[in-house]
């Protein structure tokens, strides 16, 4: 958790100072997934961000935006065990994919052709995803 807190502080993630109108349980119920603890920590304590981290641009949705954004793009309906958590601002979404053994992958995938064959792993956890960004590791290298 220290790595996560360090990156969020370094990148000036906006801290949540009011209780969200949506609960994490609502997102889990909607998606049918048990969200990873590090991602839950982010949702409960921070608002979404829209900025570069390292060499990549990310737009992470806040707790209040997740369900609506996933409905608008049909992500949960079209991709098994996947929920969108943001975008790269260039036609691709950032998502969490959880397999049947509860292994987590953070993925980048196109909004247009929702098919898991297009998923690119960009982290083995939410924290790993942010560490890779902070270390300037490009998604396509």
From TrEMBL:
<feature type="domain" description="Knr4/Smi1-like">
    <location>
        <begin position="23"/>
        <end position="131"/>
    </location>
</feature>
<dbReference type="InterPro" id="IPR037883">
    <property type="entry name" value="Knr4/Smi1-like_sf"/>
</dbReference>
<dbReference type="InterPro" id="IPR018958">
    <property type="entry name" value="Knr4/Smi1-like_dom"/>
</dbReference>
<dbReference type="Pfam" id="PF09346">
    <property type="entry name" value="SMI1_KNR4"/>
</dbReference>
<protein>
    <submittedName>
        <fullName>SMI1/KNR4 family protein</fullName>
    </submittedName>
</protein>
